[in-house]
User: Fold these one by one.
Assistant:
Number 1:
Amino acid sequence: MSEIKIISHKSPDTDAVCASIVFQNFLEQKWKKSTPIKLWNLNKETKFVLDFCWIQEPETILGLEEWTKIALVDHNEKSQSIENIWKYEIEYLVDHHKIWDFSTSWPVFIRTEQLWSTNSILYKMFKENWFEISQKIATLMLSAIVSDTLNFRSATTTREDVQIWKELNKIAKIEHLWEFVKNMFDAKSDLTWFSIEEIIKSDYKNFDFNWIKAWIWTLETTNPKFSLDKKTEILEWLQKIKHEDNLDFILLSVVDILEEKNISFVLDWNETKVVENIFWTKIENNLADLWKRLSRKKQIVPDLDKYFS
Ligand SMILES: [Mn+2]
């Protein structure tokens, strides 16, 4: 039986990477051989979580042999996945994002739900199959839920996520849980040693809105000042990326996890027009106050999708 490669999206975050490792464990309990891989460097939060669990980070692999069996976790859009995805055989999809251009030429296992993290869905799958959840796996799932819900600050966290989190907590038994969560967020916010390019490449997602090519960032941080102070450099980089990648629309949000605020960088007249129209906000000196919009997938992307279609 050939091995399945489990792929998370191009800007690996804690939910994505933990999902790939957790899903490997799920398949193992189904007697299927698989390996998680990643498409880009990990952020510091995810590194912190993996170190805490003594788990090695998945290898970065950008291309596979044709017809390799793959599983997609935490994403489904082609532009966010491995290049030339049509060359591979998609066996599984486990996700909680909108569906846009996902297609296969053979039967596939699909599980998507409106839960707040892919790991919440995986937890349910373990339960339904009566599979064992080890302390390590529970810790990964728990961290992913904390990360994707910004520790339940995101306005749209579901009750089910909270319930799942409580159950996981009993298995993970993390001592000093709140300190652990704080360390996770501090790790994510520590951008001191990163170049602007690395910061910018750490959390973007590309979208096709009705053939409009867009990149949208959310820099979740406990220290927004750090990025806001680098405004000139960040705007220069955004301009460069927009030009090089031939993009029609870009938006970079700096999300203050503690204060629950979103201040976004708006590049030029085109973005200004769109952002003013959709979010009813005035833009001053390339900055827009997007108020409490903490969630890209539920509070930013749907509005843009509607606007461009
Ligand atoms: Mn996710």
Number 2:
Amino acid sequence: MYPRKTNLARQRTRLPDRDSALCLTPGGEGSWLSVTAPLGKPDQKGFAGRRLVVTGGAGFIGSHLAHRLAALGAHVAVIDDLSSGSRENLPADLAGFFKADIRDRPTLGRVFSEFRPEIVFHQAAQISVSVSVREPAHDASINIMGLLNILEECIVHGVSRFVFASSGGTLYGEVSDRPARERDPLIPKSPYGIAKQASEGYLDFFSREHGLESVSLRYANVYGPRQDPQGEAGVVAIFSNLLLSGQAPTIFGDGSQVRDYIHVADVVEANIAAALAAEVSAAYNIGTGVGTDVNTLYAKVTKALGAKVTPIYGPARPGDLQRSILDATKAAAELGWTPSIALDEGIKDAVDWFSQRP
Ligand SMILES: NC(=O)c1ccc[n+]([C@@H]2O[C@H](COP(=O)([O-])OP(=O)(O)OC[C@H]3O[C@@H](n4cnc5c(N)ncnc54)[C@H](O)[C@@H]3O)[C@@H](O)[C@H]2O)c1
């Protein structure tokens, strides 16, 4: 079985006091904070001294990525407007934190001029499918126009590789007989999924037209410490949070819906593999290939918490797929990436973190 890699609960850090000494220019919203930290970490993967940007690095996945890259000795800058992310998620040894909205092109221009990144990991996004359904233009303003702003800055400033957070769960339709493969038809139903598909198309265009090396990682259902329990999709976080506060979670439908749950640390390693691979081709599924139904997941979370609470069953949500599992053999073959954290271990890691939260 998969060996346990890290106890991510231990990675919860707060910015140190020197945060208060960061240079703030200019004041107010849309401004940025930056600091250059002395870094002298061992170079385990060839990242030491390299200048990397993580957009959305104050969020769930982006912050784990920023922590890991900083620990590998990279100069990591985060661009995030803190709309859903938190400063507390950031690693202490960031080379820069830029509080900026990716829709604000002039500010992005200043950030890229100042920091001069070599590789950009684009995690910033409006991540709610239901918000995208209610407000498609708002979703597109961040998830398409924001992406284009970043891509254009990458061209202007000579970024060598762009790693994009796409979504396997919303791009493929119902694939009932086997895990979905990259070459399966893309039939996104929501504006969120449509924006991810469009983004992949833009990456292809920027690659052909401008020579920007880019790669899309189509994540399965990511879970782990720091996931927002108020979100609509992170069921491990939602179940843990409700159970810890003594409430019974609601399962929509009969709980037989199957999903592919992948621990955030494995997603981080996939980003690293995609950044370092000699060659990349378009899109890769990042999942375990293993399906787990919601009832089984609920049982695992309650077991990890030592809780005995019967869930409430509510009406099925319209548009929810019955089955979403990703075949990641292409990532294994071309990026040398395979997931390494078993679901029971990953759930324990996440549940431990939620249990220790103030
Ligand atoms: N969590 C999952 O299961 C999952 C699955 C598939 C794809 N993804 C993708 O992975 C990426 C990261 O998702 P996450 O779960 O960490 O979400 P998250 O909400 O925790 O992180 C997103 C971050 O982006 C920032 N952000 C949002 N709008 C911004 C803007 N206009 N300008 C600058 N920053 C902005 C937020 O403040 C937040 O810190 C997203 O692109 C998401 O679509 C996530």
Number 3:
Amino acid sequence: MSDIFRNYDKNKNNTIELTYRDMLIHQKMELSILGISIINSKSYRYNIWDIINKLDEIVDDSDPDTDLPQIIHCYQTAESIRLNYLQPNMMIKNIEIKSLFTSQEWNDVPLQFKNLYNTTLDKLYSHIIYWDWFLLIGFIHDLGKVMLLPEFGNLPQYMVVGDTFPLGNKLDKNYVFYNKNYHANNPDLNLNIYMDNCGFDNVIFSWGHDEYLARTLHINKTYLPPEALYIIRYHSFYSWHTPANGVMGYKHLANYKDWYMLPLLKCFQKADLYSKTPNISDNSHIKSIYDDLIHKYIPQKMLRMSSCFFIS
Ligand SMILES: [Fe+2]
Ligand SMILES: [Fe+2]
């Protein structure tokens, strides 16, 4: 089934490739560091429903699988999580972790972590009882794409969407359009500055909607668990969690936490990807479904958010 998604050969008018080309040329460590500093400094309060409704104005130029408004994609991702992973009582289904990997990916997992994964989701994450937050992050995971809009920075697509990658590290061969060599003159994609197994949380990533929303939720002190913020932060890190060639990239940077969280990223990715089907749901009842979850996890349904005016 995955073969019918993320097929970059169907490249809408070359827009996708141009977005990735610009990303590989222009993403720099200094821009990501600037973005982080902006989020940690100046922000304004917004009602989260106003932000969610703004997603209606956005289409993702890097995505070969959908031209739908983002709000429909968010709703479909959440409902896919409900259908595939959750029981009616909001506990996780006892799914074999190995089943989340392709056979090629599984062969690439070090023995230590094959042993860790020799169980089911409910047992590996037995400290989590209720998983209703998983639905909510399906619904809000792409909110960071508001950086495309004038009031949140008017950033170009290449600074907001697409697969993320570490900066200060050589680009992995499994990255989209690696063979076009667009990264050849980007110094931040031709270095190796990190210690082995330093952990992704200690790596500077390309700037995008993952990083923006994860950091925004972090400073807002929501009631979302750390697993939720981790999934949001790395959901576009395809080189690691869902490599096109079946060989996981950046393994040398991963620490125990990253391996422990990997099955969650794989669950989320399947819901994020396979929900991009063109059957548009009626969205008039979406608000009533998710309003209670927002109320539970995001105090007063308000978020302090920053405008990322840092690209000329
Ligand atoms: Fe996303
Ligand atoms: Fe998404």
Number 4:
Amino acid sequence: MDQFISLLVVILVLSIIFFLITREFWCWYWKVNERLYNLKQIESYLKTIAKQYSKENAVDIVPEHELTGKVAKCKECNSEIVIQEADTDQGYFICPYCGIRNYL
Ligand SMILES: [Zn+2]
């Protein structure tokens, strides 16, 4: 039983070492490097577009997941409301003071 366990450990360690040595090959083979490069390119293009859009329309584009927990002002009564996750899901929040729907 002890021999079996030590054999398993040796096989596991060798497999990990083999994977680490051939990692670059598998990343190339499954085109992981290319996909990562393309995603970074897309991200940079989107950031450029968002920046340009923000400048032209004088708005701030903030990703939804970064909005949760932030404070927004109601456009009607100017009271400050903390944005909840449900608000970002539906794309707006309803002011508890005046009942006006504010889009994010
Ligand atoms: Zn309000």
